Amino acid sequence: MIRKLESIFTLSEDERHALQTLPMQVVAIKTDQAIVREGDSPSRACLILSGFACTYKVTAQGKRQIVSFNLPGDLPDLQSLHLTVLDNSISTISPCSVGFIQHEDLRDICERYPRLTAAFWRETLIDAAIFREWVLNVGRRDAYTRMAHVLCELLTRLRAVGLVEDHACDLPITQGEFADAIGVSTVHVNRVLQQLRADGLIELTGDRLKVPDWDRLKEAGEFDPTYLHLESNQAAA
Amino acid sequence: MIRKLESIFTLSEDERHALQTLPMQVVAIKTDQAIVREGDSPSRACLILSGFACTYKVTAQGKRQIVSFNLPGDLPDLQSLHLTVLDNSISTISPCSVGFIQHEDLRDICERYPRLTAAFWRETLIDAAIFREWVLNVGRRDAYTRMAHVLCELLTRLRAVGLVEDHACDLPITQGEFADAIGVSTVHVNRVLQQLRADGLIELTGDRLKVPDWDRLKEAGEFDPTYLHLESNQAAA
DNA sequence: CGACCTGTTGATACTCGTCAATCTGAGTGG
DNA sequence: CCACTCAGATTGACGAGTATCAACAGGTCG
User: Fold this and answer.
1) What would the pLDDT profile of B38-68 be if each residue is shown by its tens digit?
2) Minimal Cα–Cα distance from A45 to chain B, Å?
3) How would you class B167 by CB atoms within 10 Å of its CB: exposed for 0-12, middle for 13-18, buried for 19 or more?
4) Which one of A179, A229, B33, B88 has the minimum C-beta count within 10 Å?
């Protein structure tokens, strides 16, 4: 969490220490397990310590739409601090280590360190900015561009928390999950990925993504990292 | 703003009074005028007093995606309080009266009435919830359902601020704007609206929307107002 | 009155979904 | 150590939903 918060906010020593000593229940969770469900009213927030999760909603016809990938350092249901009933579900998509923090502890630390209120608020505002970008992505881009865009976002966010080396990273996301994220069918994801590979924009095998030409992938995905609101210019790297 | 905040948060007398005496510059703005633009770093937030506006982003190819309609009482760029550079534009889509409130005045009132921080934070969290629902709407529903859903949302939000009478309301939104909101072409919006009319779900002429059968429209749009997080059960009305 | 924006309609083309079969690789148990 | 299983990836054929293009109608406003 610290690393993630510091990628979007500058913390003082005291604040960092307060965060580090926050009581937290750590749990190991397998792949494809629900962390929270739509309709829940949790009394604690979850923090992804390692592994990947996703936030999603489901149509009346049972179609799933992933609205966000949750990466290490993310607080994907921080909203529950002020919205009593959850309007989305969160599940792991790889083995995860998840920390649970009581709402009362979060409220307490925010009261003692008012700047942390701003930091957490800012975190939720960036989530909202990502949702906005996804509405644009799903609403107005074709499947090829959409896919490239999502890959750019993932790479940039992973880089911000130190999980990218040499333009390569672990990416435990299936084609079915990508399909639910960009709003197309699994079959079409497969074809688009092959096209991206054929165009030399990505090397994606198993759980590993490598990007030989970041500039061209950015261009293909119409990717401008401004909406991620990262503090330093890690995005440019 | 008061009316809107009270639809999602219970205010005390003091808090209401503080909000009512907040310094605000009121400006009349014509249709299709920018209020703020992507890339701006405003030092004030805007409040829609009357009229309709929309938040949108634009693709590299120049395609527009509306990510939210801004109704009277909304604070559509409240995010700028903690995100310095805006990642979206806001324009009017009807003649509007807009109030501008300095960020410093908002910070000041939040410091004096800490519960207002929570109220404003909550407001931005509900915006995020709406974005999530829109990702689902655009990503996983067909045009007919999408259109019905957006109409349900508009009607519900307008009802929360007292702008609906007898299941009818003013709705100064063109078919081109609906198209940009639900991610389809203008032509297709036209056809879908005709279908909705033919099915007896809506009466939409000029700037006026009437809903003869709310339950059937809700069903057609797979609409569940939970994600709007309204305080009282106005949604059910 | 003419310009213009919005709404409407028809014809045609294309992106992408669906269905169904096959293939691959990573476990798992005997 | 190998057959078995199963999830995920891949491929082809076909169809549905929607985009695009183009033309025209109706209302508004300078």
Assistant:
1) 999 999 999 999 999 999 999 999 999 999 9
2) 15
3) middle
4) B33
